[in-house]
Amino acid sequence: MSGRRVLITAGASGIGLGLAKRFAAEGDQLAICDADGDAIAQVKAGHPDFIAHHADVTDEAQMDAFLAQVEDVWGGVDVVCANAGIGGPAGRIEDLDYGAWRDCVGVNLFGAFLTCRWAARVMRAQKSGLIILTSSTAGLFGYPLRSPYAAAKWGIVGLTKTLAMELGGANVRVNCICPGAVEGDRMERVLANESAATGTPIEDLRAAYVDCTSLKSWVSVDDLADMALFLASPAASKVSGQILAVDGHTESIN
């Protein structure tokens, strides 16, 4: 086996799959999990060399089984991308359902905890490694009508800073990528939810997401992969505890 050992949660679609393909193109070994069993099956068919496991990041037993498999096969890990997340409900806080709030925070934040708890133990023992967490520009600003998502993504920022402090002495780096509006199916679902909550046409919301950035553009999965690959490269050997926005520079919240 050659190349880095890279683990990515929610790696069967969207940002996670984009990251996996780019790391694989660099010659790295990949292990992914995803709550979507059909998506995992498709990845297995197209990438039989991947470790691909059907697991919900909020289910401790499922994650333990996935992570134990990775540790058994690889004996360690070099890069862990705690990437799993969901958009959650849209609406005023007084109108939100507790279960929907809990589920949003659970996937975005508690899933990161289960992933990072394992990564910290393994990387501390081997005295090397990189953890990349996926937050959002919602983790840098307030986000009206998306309170559970913003709360969870701010939590990811705090987790990043804390783990960088806890693990730095073991030569383990921890950083956080904050995407802006990323092209793809997930953002289309976000737009639909926000449109339903506000009555604003989807096309108006789409334009607003572009207008609130300095570069007046959406972000691509490749933009995020470029940042992840940089963080995993020797050029970033002293980059840790950083919250790195890849968003075209958000000037205001739409």
UniProtKB/TrEMBL annotation:
Q: Name one Pfam family in it.
A: adh_short_C2
Q: Which GO terms describe its molecular function?
A: oxidoreductase activity, acting on the CH-OH group of donors, NAD or NADP as acceptor; quinone binding
Provide this UniProt record's keywords sorted from A to Z: Oxidoreductase
> Does the record carry ATP-binding as a key word?
no
Species assigned in the record = Roseovarius aestuarii
Belongs to which family?
Answer: Belongs to the short-chain dehydrogenases/reductases (SDR) family.
Q: What is the lineage of its organism?
A: Bacteria, Pseudomonadati, Pseudomonadota, Alphaproteobacteria, Rhodobacterales
Q: Return the SUPFAM superfamilies for the record.
A: NAD(P)-binding Rossmann-fold domains
**Alphabetically, which GO biological process terms does the record hold?**
fatty acid biosynthetic process
Designated name of the protein: Levodione reductase
Q: Does the keyword Oxidoreductase apply?
A: yes
Q: What is its EC number?
A: 1.1.1.-
Record-linked CDD domains: SDR_c
**InterPro entries annotated for this entry?**
NAD(P)-bd_dom_sf, Sc_DH/Rdtase_CS, SDR_fam
Task: Give, as one word, the top-level EC class.
Answer: oxidoreductase
PROSITE patterns listed in its UniProt record: ADH_SHORT
Coding gene? lvr
